[in-house]
Amino acid sequence: MSRKILIVEDEAPIREMLSFVMEQHGYQAVEANDYQVALEKIVEPFPDMILLDWMLPGGSGIQLAKKLKSDDFTRNIPIIMLTARGEEEDKVRGLEVGADDYITKPFSPKELMARMRAVFRRVSPTALDEPLEIEGLKLDPISHRVTAYNDRVDMGPTEFKLLHFFMTHPERVYSREQLLDNVWGTNVYVEDRTVDVHIRRLRKAIEMHGHDRLVQTVRGVGYRFSSR
Ligand code: CA
């Protein structure tokens, strides 16, 4: 369930280093060493981000970025270009074809993580990577872990998404339909009652330390996540 990062880089030491850094930060790393392999790896479920080297055997990084950004299915995948020093013109071209950012080699893992977080924040403001906490209930979006006063809390993927949505949108009432759109997506057909089922499961999962009281029923309207 962690985010999948595709690393497209032909130089093995750099690729392996990046892969290591990604996994160290709770991401799932997928590697590609040239243009063709990269294309083969860009299939559903799509990577959540692509780190794309400039000079690649079989086609340039810029060609690949251009191709992905002109396709409806892949245009929303954020791309960070990895460029060598002094390729100023290329950076501009990269941004022109729709790359979301670039970083100049050599860079530190810290610098890269900061760029990645900034891009994630820009493309999906509600999907922040920072751990969330309300009254001892903690949710870490990267490691996909929930704890209540440091006790591990187990829950299904839908309950996790629901809790993540609630924790990033507290103190507001949402109707079942709004929750469906935000948590399940607008193209999914699910009955309103499904929301109630998952709310029940979520409450059960977090009741150990009384956090179920945060998930409040607002009669005739829907649900609210609130510490009041
Ligand atoms: Ca290269």
Automatic annotation (TrEMBL):
CDD domains, per the entry: REC_OmpR_PhoB, trans_reg_C
InterPro entries: CheY-like_superfamily, OmpR/PhoB-type_DNA-bd, Sig_transdc_resp-reg_C-effctor, Sig_transdc_resp-reg_PhoB, Sig_transdc_resp-reg_receiver, WalR-like, WH-like_DNA-bd_sf
PROSITE patterns linked: OMPR_PHOB (PS51755), RESPONSE_REGULATORY (PS50110)
DNA-binding region: 129-227
Ranges in a coiled coil: none
GO biological process: phosphate ion transport; regulation of DNA-templated transcription
Pfam families per the UniProt record, alphabetical: Response_reg (PF00072), Trans_reg_C (PF00486)
Principal cellular location given in the protein's record: cytoplasm
GO cellular component labels: cytosol; protein-DNA complex
Modified residues (4-aspartylphosphate): D53
NCBIfam families: PhoB
Role summary: This protein is a positive regulator for the phosphate regulon. Transcription of this operon is positively regulated by PhoB and PhoR when phosphate is limited.
Protein name: Phosphate regulon transcriptional regulatory protein PhoB
